[in-house]
Amino acid sequence: MASSRVPIILFFCSLITTTTTFVAADVVLTLDQSNFTQTVTKHHFLLVDFYAPWCGHCQQLSPELQKAASILSSNDPPITLAMVDANDEKNQDLATEYDIKSFPTLKIIKNGGKSIQDYKGPRDAQGIVAYLKKQSGPASTEIKSTEDGSDVVNGDKIVIVGVFPELSGEKFNAFLELAEKLRTEYDFAHTLDAKLLPRGDSSVSGPIVRLFKPFDELVVDFEDFNLDALEKFVEEASTPTVTVFDNDPKNQPFLIKFFNTPNAKAMLFVNFSSKPFGAFESIYHDIATEHKGKGMSFLIGDVEATQAAFQFFGLKQEHVPVILINNDKEKYVKPNLEPDHIESWLKEYKDGKIAPYVKSEPVPESNNQPVKVVVADNFDDIVFKSVKNVLLEMYAPWCGHCKKLSPILDKVAASFAKDTDVVIAKIDATANDIVHEGFEIKGYPTLYFKSASGKLLQYSGKRTKEKIIDFIKKNKDNITPSDSRKDEL
């Protein structure tokens, strides 16, 4: 089964296309495999942008990083920014080591590489500056006045505050450890007086952890200072019962959290301006509340803001209102939904009474070109059922490296034109589901080779005509006449 979490994240990167040239300014260090470790070792605090030159989001981020780097170079102490072309073959070991699965990915590397955290802040210059200054300072700040409390706890973000009778001891230290570990995701503060906080019970003396959020119950208290228990509390309490997918930028952090969760994802797409929306919203929220903490996360999306998601999942406008469940193995879809039918359909899904939904382009009427076109509906016939050696490229139409590889694959196919044992094929992995074990897409293009006997190998060599041909010749099976007759049958 092809992994579906990575393509879900990757499709966000494909939403913007631009012809902007990707240029690194002198104030942003350019790193690669040869100088990366040395640079990391000598810096206490480093932000590294792992990018791909063809990525539209990377191209938009580049000038913002340059502006931020210019400002932060005069900070006391200076904060250094760097970039790595993670799509360059010579940097693939770095990309693997730092778990780079989408572009751009930004990592905060501290203490000479001893601490590595994901950057989860803004993508504009001023926002980057403010976020990095905060990340380079104390993990938790002290609230000493009501003004401090109002400044720290505003209505737009999640803030975690520890209330303590004294700022010392085992529980206070556990809170600081939590703050350091999760500081890139949340704002942390601590206080000796709960009366300085804008919401919640002001009579408590602690120790407690109070989480403020802009949704659901707004304030939640927790008293278990075991670090694992604290992390679990923060994860569950900071997740909306229903994540909203619309054009409001304030919802973007929660969307990222939703798509990164390992839970099964239920996604309801409705026209927010339509009359039935209120009924859908109310019923859906009640169902999500009932299922909270049971391995399923819930999202409601406005069709006006989710056209990219529609394209990614293979949905159409006439399907609305539509609910989709993606469990990282299969997808299940119920189009033209009525509010009162949501709960019964979810029960049918849990009882295994619904067939998975497979997104597929139409099967080509003619498929005689040198590189065969594979779609979900003919995948088995071309790749598995025919007794052939098949080299399959999984590509994205917007990917620059895929476009560069295309003429090379044409030449590879031409070189095997007289060898009926070998098939060169390609599938648009953004428009078709690949529902077979063994295929994993971490980036585009991804090449797999299936031998006539069924052996599956991923091609990771240089993308040249000669290297690909050598790989096929080395790994292909010779087909016997009996195999050929079986294939014809």
UniProtKB/TrEMBL annotation:
GO cellular-component terms in the record?
A: endoplasmic reticulum lumen
Q: What is the species of this protein?
A: Tagetes erecta (African marigold)
Tell me the protein's name: Protein disulfide-isomerase
Its annotated compartments are: Endoplasmic reticulum lumen
**What lineage does the source organism belong to?**
Eukaryota, Viridiplantae, Streptophyta, Embryophyta, Tracheophyta
Matching PROSITE patterns: THIOREDOXIN_1, THIOREDOXIN_2
Instruction: List the catalysed reactions.
Output: Catalyzes the rearrangement of -S-S- bonds in proteins
Q: Which family does it belong to?
A: Belongs to the protein disulfide isomerase family.
Stored SUPFAM superfamilies: Thioredoxin-like
